Amino acid sequence: AWARLLAEDPGDERAQSELERLAGARGEFGELARLYEERLGATFDGELGRRYGSKLAQIYEEALGDVDRAIACHRRALEFPGDESGPLGALDRLLEGKGAFTERAEVLEREAGVAVDAGEQAGLLFRLGMVRERELRDLDGALAAYREVLEREPAHADARFALERMLDHELLRAQALDLLEPLYETAADYAALTRLGEVRLGL
Question: What is the radius of gyration, based on Cα positions, of the chain?
Answer without folding.
Answer: 23
